[in-house]
Amino acid sequence: MSDAVLTNAQLIKLLLELSTNDGFRQRYAEKPAAALVELGVPHEVVVNIDAACLAPTRLADKQAFAEAHQQMVDSKVVEAHSMIIPNRLRFDSTK
């Protein structure tokens, strides 16, 4: 069973390329697996992605990918801002 997935960073990079790079868009539409390897996704990940996701396809317009890219970036910013980072240590003096 194919169960490989892209990391968030890989997905953000893919969405950016699909929203801005005409040459990459054409290569991805024709040969998604090769385009993913070109993007830096390890070969062992690509060969384990569901084959249906790697079939040649007609892509949505650049704006659709730009919007998806921005949503991913925004969600990662919100996730990072929601982390609670301690700024000082508290000690219990009774112990």
What's the layout of helices and strands?
Blueprint: H1 8-20, H2 22-30, H3 32-39, H4 43-46, H5 62-81
Task: Explain the overall architecture.
- This protein is mainly alpha-helical and 95 residues long.
- The protein has one domain (8-77).
- 57% of the residues lie in helices and 0% in strands.
- The chain has helices at 8-20, 22-30, 32-39, 43-46, 62-81.
- The longest helix is centred in the C-terminal third of the chain and has 20 residues, at 62-81.
- The termini are far apart.
- The mean pLDDT is 85.
Rg over CA atoms, rounded to whole Å, is 19 Å
Low-pLDDT stretches are: none
Percentage of residues assigned to helices: 55-70%
The counted number of beta strands is: 0
- Given the structure, what is the number of helices? 5
Q: Return the average pLDDT rounded to an integer.
A: 85
What is the succession of H and E elements? HHHHH
Query: In what range is the share of β-strand residues?
Result: under 5%
What is the assembly state of the chains in this entry? Answer: single chain
N-to-C span? 54 Å
Tell me, what's the shape? Answer: globular
**Total of domains:** 1
* Class from secondary-structure proportions: mainly alpha
Let me know the largest β-sheet: none
Summary?
This protein is mostly helical and 95 residues long. The protein has 5 helices and no strands. α1 packs across α2, α1 runs antiparallel to α5 and α2 packs across α3.
Label this structure with key terms:
mainly alpha; 57% helix; 95 residues; single chain
